[in-house]
From TrEMBL:
The keyword Protease appears for this protein: yes
Name listed for the protein in its UniProt record: Probable cytosol aminopeptidase
Subcellular localization(s) per the UniProt record: Cytoplasm
Family matches, as InterPro entries: Leucine_aapep/pepB, Macro_dom-like, Peptidase_M17_C, Peptidase_M17_leu_NH2_pept, Peptidase_M17_N
Protein keywords: Aminopeptidase, Cytoplasm, Hydrolase, Manganese, Metal-binding, Protease
Catalytic activity: Release of an N-terminal amino acid, Xaa-|-Yaa-, in which Xaa is preferably Leu, but may be other amino acids including Pro although not Arg or Lys, and Yaa may be Pro. Amino acid amides and methyl esters are also readily hydrolyzed, but rates on arylamides are exceedingly low; Release of an N-terminal amino acid, preferentially leucine, but not glutamic or aspartic acids
Record family assignment: Belongs to the peptidase M17 family.
Binding locations of Mn(2+) 2: K270, D275, D293, E354
Stated role: Presumably involved in the processing and regular turnover of intracellular proteins. Catalyzes the removal of unsubstituted N-terminal amino acids from various peptides.
Organism: Streptomyces bambusae
Active-site residues per Swiss-Prot or TrEMBL entry: K282, R356
Cofactor: Mn(2+)
């Protein structure tokens, strides 16, 4: 990953390929943001005027490259838009800083070293800029350059090194902020790699092996149930989804513990390594990106690893429900009845509603350990994408306060989310004449129906929330801010902050 350091060097003495400054959108044109005073001085105090003349406004996402004047030891100055100038006594919005830093990193793809002279008023601004810079510098190149002609098929490598100017390398809070940002960004990028890895390589078995290797490296216990153990254990949901595939399913448990922990969390991730829909096959146009259907499991895995690396005082167990949903002679048919791990029977009316089946077993299993709270993360329904769009995940819960907390936490870390209800009247749509329930209900409110299905498998008295990340997990449009094309690592930052808040007893 891109290297990141806090530097005490002045903007006019540092050697780099580019100097990044912030520009805000003032009422009368662009305004140079704090942190860039020395750069502005090198422009004889006329940087804002130059930017104005070039047509820059300071709008969010705007990137303007200009040749550096004599007096700076860099060839290029890159001005990134921060949006509106903050009110008096307020600081720049953290998410605006995170996105601006990400846009700068992306614009500097191929460069070796860049100095960032953005406004760093406090430790949380340091975290935001560091995270943005590291997340924006992400590229998935593992499958490029196969012909060896050109290193990566001509694709430039991400920005290699970032020096943050204006932070205080000896300040305890700033140091911790940057260390935290490095760990979190590295793990978000790991989640992205897992999501982007094609499904012929990232099978359930391969994903489980990654978890085992990482677990050994960082001293976190990983246990894997293979298909034999799943059959023996009665995991009818996970087996029912996975049995149509040549690549058998897995249930992975990754358990981080801290000796002083007083609270425990369980994270449960949907890990469908490829969702063809099964016998209820998805039509062309709906299956090209379905390698992303393990994004929930990727987020759970990456966040537990980040939490372990941060050494948080809380016990966190991650459960990865891994299966490939394929049609074949051994696949579950629409009409089959599965006996779930909980004992409940489920009539499978649509094999494309598979996420809830694997999650149900994992939720029941996770509940056996009586966590203080449980959160599942899943690319669960197209309906949630219709409701909230491509950038916002839905939050459902069996506890209003917990749902509100998660919404606030997501907001705090810069992840867009929205609280959604679990209307009890939608439950009867899943009544089955044959089994205890069906895996499908009314089409209207399909995201909430899926949430109600999951709720049936949450242990008595356990506080639970469900994050439907089907929209934001995989970004198909042009990159923006620190968000690349492909896997985004959605929900990792929210889960990590939830663990931090749980550790400090500060859940609001
Ligand atoms: N993995 C899909 C949901 C999805 C859709 C994720 C778009 C990401 C982007 C899920 O397994 C699915 O197919 N859900 C069905 C459920 C339906 C059959 C009840 C859906 O949403 O159409
Ligand atoms: Mn599906
Ligand atoms: Zn799916």
């Amino acid at each position: 990953m891109t290297a990141l350091t806090l530097s005490t060097a002045g903007a006019s003495t540092l050697r780099a390929d580019a100097l990044v400054v912030g520009v805000a959108k003032g009422p009368k044109g662009p305004v140079v943001a704090p942190g860039a005073e020395a750069v502005d001085a090198a422009f004889d105090g006329k940087l804002a005027g130059v930017l104005d003349a070039l047509g820059a406004s300071g709008a969010e996402g705007e990137v303007t490259k200009l040749p550096a004047p004599a007096g700076l030891k860099v060839p290029v100055v890159l001005a990134v838009g921060l949006g509106g100038v903050p009110e008096k006594d307020e600081s720049y919005d953290e998410e605006a800083l995170r996105r601006a830093a990400g846009a700068a990193s992306r614009a500097l793809t191929g460069a070796k070293k860049a100095a960032f002279a953005l406004p760093l008023e406090d430790a949380s601004a340091v975290t935001a800029v560091a995270e943005g810079a590291l997340l924006g510098a992400y590229a998935f190149t593992a499958y490029q350059g196969g012909d060896k002609k050109d290193a990566k098929n001509g694709a430039k490598l991400p920005l290699a090194e970032v020096a943050l100017l204006g932070a205080k390398p000896r300040d305890k809070d700033h140091k911790a902020a940057v260390e935290r940002a490095k760990i979190v960004a590295a793990e978000v990028n790991i989640a992205r790699d897992l999501i982007n890895t094609p499904p012929n390589d990232l099978t359930p078995e391969a994903f489980a092996a990654v978890a085992q290797t990482t677990g050994k490296e960082i001293g976190v216990k990983v246990q894997v149930l293979d298909e034999k153990a799943l059959v023996k254990g009665g995991y009818g949901g996970i087996m029912g989804v996975g049995k149509g595939s040549e690549n058998p399913p897995r249930l992975v448990k990754i358990a981080y513990t801290h000796a002083k922990a007083t609270k425990s969390l369980a994270f449960v991730g949907k890990g469908i390594t490829y969702d063809s829909g099964g016998i209820s096959l998805k039509p062309a146009g709906h299956n090209e990106t379905m390698k992303c259907d393990m994004s929930g499991a990727a987020a759970v895995f990456a966040s537990v690893v980040a939490i372990a690396k941060l050494g948080l005082e809380v016990n966190v167990t991650g459960w990865l429900a891994l299966a490939e949903n394929m049609p074949s002679g051994s696949a579950t048919r629409p009409g089959d009845v599965l006996r779930m791990y909980s004992g409940k029977t489920v009539e499978v009316l649509n094999t494309d509603a598979e996420g809830r089946l694997v999650l149900a077993d994992a939720l029941t299993r996770a509940s056996e350990e009586n966590p203080d709270a449980m959160v599942d993360v899943a690319t669960l329904t197209g309906a949630m994408v219709l409701a909230l769009g491509n950038r916002t995940f839905g939050i459902m819960a069996n506890d209003d306060a917990f749902r509100t907390s998660i919404h606030e936490i997501a907001e705090e870390v810069g992840e867009a989310s929205w609280p959604m209800p679990l209307p009890a009247d939608l439950r009867k749509g899943m009544d089955s004449p044959t089994a205890d329930m069906a895996n499908m209900g009314e089409r209207m409110g399909g995201g909430l129906v899926a949430g109600l299905f999951l709720q049936e498998f949450v242990g008595e008295g356990i506080t639970w929330a469900h994050l439907d990340i089907a929209g934001p997990a995989f970004h198909e449009g042009a990159p923006y801010g620190y968000t690349p094309k492909g896997g985004t690592g959605s929900a990792v930052r929210t889960l990590v902050r939830l663990a931090e808040r749980t550790a400090t007893g500060d859940l609001g």
